[in-house]
Amino acid sequence: MSEIRQDPTTKEWVIIAKERAKRPHDFVRVESRPELPDFLPSCPFCPGNEAMTVPETLSYRDEKTRGWRVRAFVNKFPALTPQGSTARNAENGFLLRLDGVGVHEVIVETPVHNRPLALMEDAGVIDVLLAYQERYDALRPMPFVKSIIIFKNHGPSAGTSLRHPHSQLVATPIVPRHIRLQHEVARSYYDDTGQCLYSDLASHELSVGERIVVETEKFVVLHPFASHRPFETWILPKARQASFCNASTEQIKELAHVLRITLLKLYRGLNNPDFNYVLDSAPIGEEDSDYYLWHLRIIPRLTKVAGFEIGSGVYINTALPEETAQFMRSIEVE
Question: What is the pTM of this model?
Fold first, then answer.
């Protein structure tokens, strides 16, 4: 019989379709991706093609060669731009609108065209995470910035258009409803218990054990009880921090290792699946709140959203998180 499980962080319901469930091995990509070169002359993100992008907002360079390791710059086709007004205007006093004010940047993760995060050394992933944090800190004082979303699309079904490994950052003048919902639920839990919902969730999962993928000194990697999609993976810090901007250098170093081995497990176990990841962090001005915990969510694109999900907002997951977590634990990585 199927189960209907509730996500404690949003109060959303998810159907775990046990009778339709596939075994973890059934989600392995059958087809292999085409081989990519380490350099592509037409790629605007490859070294030597920097003139194809706008000027950098950040770069980390080798002291000897001056070659770059990570670059950040404004997206050539930004969803939002810094010009305009954040004043709300109502059409006939009813439908609200405001100018598309914000910032949309690209973070190129490596000069090597065919080297995803999963196949990097820890040092390379550290650079990427430090770049996230540096750009986050640079943008959050801007008066129109209310929320900063850092995300990565890997593969065509995840929305990527350029294969060269990169992430994106979007700073918005509003706090998206999904983020507001997370915070409303976490605040309500804190008001009732005096505890952080996400910290309590991590402690519960560690005590149960069956949905844990990796545990380190500073982080917990798990498959959520009410996973929306097969192999949905969360990385949560053990320290009580609402904002990613508050993570220490030591935390960033350990997160880089944890993220790399988690992505490598997915890469090896599922044959390099398409995925998105999102870094969830507190809205601007709420970075020191006690009730929220920043975290990173990885969503492999192994199934498609269909009519029931669109009509109801309730996801159907055809994989048991207890089984997918066990599968992930069994994959050995260095």
Answer: 0.95
Given a contact cutoff of 8 angstroms between Cβ atoms, the answer to whether 99 and 85 are in contact is yes
Is residue 13 in a domain? no
Residue 21 above 80 pLDDT? no
Distance of CA 282 to the CA centre of its chain: 14
| Options 104, 154, 164, 166, the catalytic residue | 166
- Domain harbouring 283, CATH code: 3.30.428.10
Is 241 in contact with 293 (CB distance < 8 Å)? yes
Residue positions counted in the chain:
334
Closest Cα to residue 9, out of 150, 232, 192, 196?
A: 196
pLDDT tens string 141-182: 999 999 999 999 999 999 998 999 999 999 999 999 999 999
**Residue 257: active-site member:** no
Spatial neighbors of 207 by CB under 8 A, at least 6 apart, are none
Q: Provide the β-strand partners of residue 73.
A: 56, 106
**Is-contact 310 268, C-beta < 8 A?**
no
CA 114 to centroid of chain Cα atoms: 20
